[in-house]
Write a structure and sequence with these properties.
The chain is mainly beta. It has one helix at 57-60; strands at residues 5-16, 24-35, 50-55, 67-76, 79-82, 92-96. It starts with a strand and ends with a strand.
Length: 100
């Protein structure tokens, strides 16, 4: 099932992914989720809670804990993945919040 959801998240922490070389495993607080037209939305039920999100390291370069990000993500094999190569405007640093 093709799925994709726009997420607003607050970064809590990030470390190298334990199973996927070339990825970071970011622990985030899921602030909001919006369906993407034409795709199933599998991540909205997790709003308000923590989420482990696989993200390419370049996307988190210089991003400190507490920062709010807007990105698109999908669920695959039970794991949430940020888009690897988002289109312009589909990945944004919205600003730093209080460090958690």
């Amino acid at each position: 099932m093709e799925n994709l959801t726009v997420l607003r998240v607050r970064l809590v922490s990030a470390a190298p992914h334990p199973r996927l070389p070339g990825w970071q495993l970011a622990r985030v607080e899921l602030l909001s989720a919006t369906p993407v037209e034409g795709f199933a939305d599998l991540l909205s039920p997790r709003v308000g809670g923590p989420l482990d999100l696989a993200v390419r390291p370049a996307q988190l370069a210089g991003v400190a804990p507490g920062t709010v990000l807007r990105l698109r993500a999908r669920l695959s094999a039970g794991e949430a993945f940020a888009e690897q190569e988002p289109a312009p405007g589909d990945f944004a640093v919205e600003g730093a919040g209080p460090v958690l």
